[in-house]
Amino acid sequence: MASIVEGREVSALLDELTTMVGREDPYGHYTRLRELGPVLRDADGTLIVTRFTECQSVSRDHKLGKMPVELLPHLGLADWAEHPALYGYFTSLLGINPPDHTRLRRLVSSGFTVRRVQELRPATTRMIDEMIEAMAAAGTADFVSVFAFPLPCNVISELLGVPEADRAQFQHLVQDWSAVLDEITPEVLLKADPAAQAVRDYLAGLAAERRRHPRGDLMSAMVEHEEAGDRLTGDELLTMAGLLFAAGFETTTNLLSNGLAALLDHPGQRDALLADPAAAVEELLRFDSPVQNIDRTVLEPSTVAGVTLEPGQRIVAYTGAANRDPRRFTDPDRLDLGRTDNASLSFGGGIHYCLGAPMARLEAQIAFPRLLERLPGLRRVEGAERRDSLTIRGFDTLPVNTD
Ligand code: HEM
């Protein structure tokens, strides 16, 4: 039976992950954490798993779930419902358990099937081609602001029905809001709360507009569910729209920028990308995932790697580390776009498995081959800045030159 590993080495490695050194390259730290043991404990009592098998079983175990809001006061968050940033997170799909999770997820999942998402292919391709033209004309540009943010933001906005003129403001609002995924402190909430409230107010206006004038978009469909009676309350509608909207670009932006950086750093892989873009995107997701960890709370007694888990215990699965576990992947630190055994944990697992995975895949599978084919001189230039976040891995800026 395995025991829990804790102490100075574990805490020091976890602390370093939160510094800029860890932000630049967490993978060396992950290797050391994985070798310490299957289940680690941080100084604050949180359990950590970093190996593939354990991360996968944590993501799939029905006895583990999202922290019930009744437990939030124990974390010093008795007033969580008064903070828009926390309310919008803890009451969303990402923060709730069955049966509410089952009911709400079923209501929106039909909007995100592979077939529905494939219908977005022509519009997505058009947007990509226009952005590539603009990049070519500009010469030097920040890839995040000219491509990686606007593409997924426009795609989810098209689906939801957010008009074009309103979209640009959301990049910073959503970044400020999602800072609560990393840590919940008064300083973080000072920026996160007004940002979350601004997103919610905007979506409330849009929902009101669709109640008056329904269209064929997802917001109109959600308004219909709301009006049909007890299936979706007005409050749930706004929380759901906020999550879909934010999750719809926050992470895909980082798949596009992490993926492009990896492609430009490995020019020898170009042919493999063009030969099989779908397999290549899976490998890019494995190699440098936009989401590096997922969080669970023990709801009923369970075990992981022989360690007993007690109700109320918090456990974090470092999926970004699991994706580089040599027990699961051959030569895991090598980017190999021809790799076929590359199913990673980047979209999570179990009942919270990413709803937007087909959409993120579609965008990346169209974008990367077109970028490399249309802009053969594309290269990175000085000045890239990594995002300061443990959970979300990406770039704040990724300057490139197209000459
Ligand atoms: C590369 C891009 C993306 C990555 C890496 C990603 C990653 C993830 C992960 C890891 C989870 C599970 C969290 C957990 O288990 O605690 C998740 C859930 C979710 N994602 Fe994504 N995501 C991406 C794109 C998107 C897009 C484009 C959308 C929406 C349009 C989206 C919507 C959601 C939603 C609604 C959930 C919550 C599902 C639930 O709890 O039932 N994601 N995502």
Automatic annotation (TrEMBL):
The keyword DNA-binding does not apply. Keywords: Heme, Iron, Metal-binding, Monooxygenase, Oxidoreductase. InterPro entries: Cyt_P450 (IPR001128), Cyt_P450_B (IPR002397), Cyt_P450_CS (IPR017972), Cyt_P450_sf (IPR036396). CDD domains: CYP164-like. It comes from the Bacteria. It holds the Pfam family p450. The keyword Metal-binding applies. Belongs to the cytochrome P450 family. This is Cytochrome P450. The lineage of its organism: Bacteria, Bacillati, Actinomycetota, Actinomycetes, Micromonosporales.
